[in-house]
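Case 396 in the screening queue. Each case pairs one protein sequence with one candidate compound; here the compound is FE2/S2 (inorganic) cluster. For every case the pipeline is the same: read the inputs, emit a complex structure as tokens, and attach any notable structural observations.

Predict complex for case 396.
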Amino acid sequence: MSETPKNPSPADLDRMSDADLVRLGTEMDEVDVRFRENRWPEGVTTRAEKRAARTVTIWFALSAVLALAFAVIYIAWPWEYRGEGEDGYWLYMVYTPLLGVTIGLSILFLGFGAVQFTKKFVPEEISVQTRHDGPSDEADRRTIVAELNDSWKTSTLGRRKVMGGLLGAGVGLIGLSAILPLGGMIKNPWKRGELTVAGDGTLHTTGWTLASSSRPDGLPAEKVYLGRDTGKVFPDGHPPAGEGRLVRIHVEDLAAGGLESVFPLPENDLGDFEAHMHSIHGVRNAVMLIRFRPEDAARVIKRKGQEEFNYGDLYAYSKICTHLACPTSLYEQQTQRFLCPCHQSQFNALEYAKPIFGPAARALPQLPIAVDSEGYLVANGDFIEPVGPAFWERRS
Ligand code: FES
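Case 396 output:
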């Protein structure tokens, strides 16, 4: 071991070995190494060392396998909602717990492995250092690199390829698991599914599209009632057969000056509690049904192309704000304005719900309505423009 110069020049530093640089670094940092001992004798591999290596390897392997299982479950598991009693209900039920268990255990086992590795392979050392201020100079930087190299070598991780590989795999897969869930936010907005009471999955449709005479799926228009949400819940989660949550609204149900939120209620779904819940949860479905007082109805200005959309003094406007899709559910009867609580957009209820204040730039779409032979309110077709905020493909 050569003598360590006190103030080494770059040429001195080039000549020094890693061990010299480590010693120089500890001296310059005023680190006093009181005790240092390798865990295992150098040059021979004892059975105890092999056993220790096996233990650490098993923890890292388990961590990697569980992280991989998390990724596979996240991507391939049949996670779509299934009601109790339906095929695949239990697979659906265990999806979230499985994700939690696999990623939780993976992180736990990685931690166990790291602790075991440190205790069994990193040399024991007791050092004392005095603190000092100021930035590090060149010699400091070089010596710290040498110290890190020294740690790497003495930890023996470099030559324990399987253990190192599994540690890397565990860390890598856990990192991947952290960003994988972001994949759930990636959605193809043009991909059409089956047209249901929640729309077909694209931004152009809603549950009311079922009533359109030109449905995107080519099927004939269905009769879709305006459904009132009764708020019914069942303590055991099992509604009796035929017991629905939405009910039809009769033309005489709403008092003059009143407003009510309504949801699409297809004739085929009357009394189907689950279908009603899908309708209520359809993100573009909510509509404000309003009955103007006669003096207000006389002042209504209709939009070109929507002259026949109302039924008498009953008007139906989308409740989804055209700014950023909050519910515009505040109706100020005195000023005849709909207010959106999110960014204070205001819409004139008497002039086809056009925006008159705030960031919203488009009127709330109006739903054409009519009354059937029994006096119930029904959709007389679909909205003639997309509901909600702007998106690239919309033309209006
Ligand atoms: S979402 Fe309605 S004003 Fe912004």
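Case 396 observations:
- The pocket of FE2/S2 (inorganic) cluster is lined by residues 321, 323-324, 326, 340, 342-343, 345, 358-360 (CB under 6 Å).
- The chain has eight helices and 13 strands.
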